[in-house]
Amino acid sequence: MKSLGRWTLVVSTTLLGACGGSEQAADQPGWEEAAELQIDVAVLIRQLADSEPGEYGSVVRKLAEAGRVAVPALLEALESPDENVKQGALQALMRVGPEAAPAVPRLIQFVRDDEVRMFALPALASIGPAARAAAPLALEILQSDPSSTDRMQAAEVVAAVLSVEEAVPPLLAALDDEWGGVRGQAVWELKQLEVASDEAVAAYLRLLTDDDRRVRSRAASALAVAAP
Asked: Could you say which of 89, 135, 145, 151 is the most buried, measured as most Cβ atoms within 10 Å of its Cβ?
């Protein structure tokens, strides 16, 4: 059986900050609850290595539910040689969302790893503006990466971490991507950002005749928002 000491220690050292010192915020765990969480997180991380396929998703969800208290331990788990542990930690960080901001530097490194990029990009997108440091790499992937799936995920990161003004030009350019999945993702992000410039509306109209049915559907949806 693997020792839990290292992961438990990592979580323990953050409890003071997580509990807000002597003045606890209403949405933060108390000392007893935090102590329980540290044990649960350590156990759950170990379970990532041994879970059956049907249980794996449940373990990831429980880790994410621990929120920022679990982030230091999840960062430690990213260094595991066990791919199940590493990928599970990445998926949990994605579900944690903005509170996983301390993981941004390591996630950016993982984006450069083809084996786990598909998990690292969505995690960065879920963190949002606090992951702005990932923008240069996400833009590079969106504009020139040979993997269409990676370009699609990079579009989501660009929309999530940059301001609207910064995100719109590369997203509009992605509407001309050769793969429908990227075009569809780009138009979806533009819709979510409520982009209604003349250039964007013209692009939405053009995409109404796109070869990809999903792109046509999303273009119509974006157009309804931009020009109701």
From this structure: 89
Amino acid 54: pLDDT: 82
Cα separation, 117 vs 108, whole angstroms: 9
Enclosing domain of residue 222: 173-228
Using the predicted structure, report yes or no on whether residue 139 has a pLDDT greater than 70: yes
Token output for 141:
């992937």
Two structure tokens written together for 63:
């880790």
Q: What residues contact residue 28 under an 8 Å CB cut-off, 6+ apart?
A: 18, 19, 20
The total domain count for the chain is 1
Burial, 25: exposed, middle or buried (Cβ in 10 Å; 0-12, 13-18, 19+)?
A: exposed
Contact call for residues 45 and 85 (beta carbons, < 8 A): yes
Mean pLDDT of 32-38: 53
What are the C-alpha distances in Å from 77 to residues 6, 53, 83, 93, 196? Answer: 10, 19, 10, 11, 43
* Whole-angstrom distance, CA of residue 50 vs CA of residue 86: 13
Q: What is the rounded CA–CA span in Å between residue 79 and residue 154?
A: 24
Q: Amino acid letter at 196?
A: A
Q: How far apart are CA 109 and CA 215, in angstroms?
A: 31
Q: What is the mean pLDDT of the chain?
A: 86
pLDDT value of residue 13: 30
Within a domain: 186? yes
Q: Is residue 166 part of a domain?
A: no
Percent of the chain with pLDDT over 70: 83
Q: Which pLDDT score, from 0 to 100, does residue 37 have?
A: 57
